[in-house]
Amino acid sequence: MKKKIAGSLVCAMLYAAPGFGAEPDAATAAGTPLSSEWQFSATPYFWAAGLSGKVSHRRQFVIDVDADFDKLFDNLDFGAMLIAEARKGRYSIFGDLIYTKIGSQGDTPLGLLATSADVKTSTFAGLIGAGYSVLENSPHQLDVVAGLRVWSVDTDITLKGAHLNGRTRSEGATWVDGLVGVRGNYVLSPKFYLTGWGLVGAGGAEADWDVGLGLGYNISKNVSAAIGYRALGVDYSSGGFKFDAVLQGPMAGVTIRF
């Protein structure tokens, strides 16, 4: 009988929130024309996502995953995430780098052969993209974007109990997806703004999508903060390794411009 391994693959949860790296500064909010000089920003952020879906190892271990984001800290061993952006006039280049390491325990679908399993998963995820603003001389911002997303997932499952006690199975995959979409900001006041994005694509995965919406606040000319909600889905399978999951939950970040 298949059971849930809570948080065993939350590793993939922290990925590609391009809207959080595109906060407008006070000048943009006031409607100043787009700058002809390069402008740079960096956004450390955190996404407390829940994960639901299916993962498998060489078709031997098919596990239903359903972990709410409120259980995240019971399973997260390490997580680091950062968005960076460079913008000049209507053009922008942005990137998002993530590394996470997850440990969890759960029941297995192996019946009498094993009673439980320890799961350790590490993931590197990176997005590089470029955008073009379709608005000019506007306090708001709307970019058409395209990019590449790299996934690299490694998972170790150690079986516990019964006949397979101590047996370890390792599996991993690395793939690249192409994505297109939009991202933008809507200025509510010199201090507050809405930020959002939507991306969809495929490549190594059969489907890859990412949507989000947030509320931002300009703390000063060079610093702003945003909170929001994001959902990301991916469906990848190759050689018996399967990662078919939807990740969603609240996120928060701080942007520094220079």
TrEMBL record:
It is found in: Cell outer membrane. Keywords: Signal. It comes from the Bacteria. GO terms for cellular component: cell outer membrane. Residues 1-21 form the signal peptide. The keyword RNA-binding does not apply. Coiled coil: none annotated. This is Outer membrane protein beta-barrel domain-containing protein. The lineage of its organism: Bacteria, Pseudomonadati, Pseudomonadota, Betaproteobacteria, Burkholderiales.
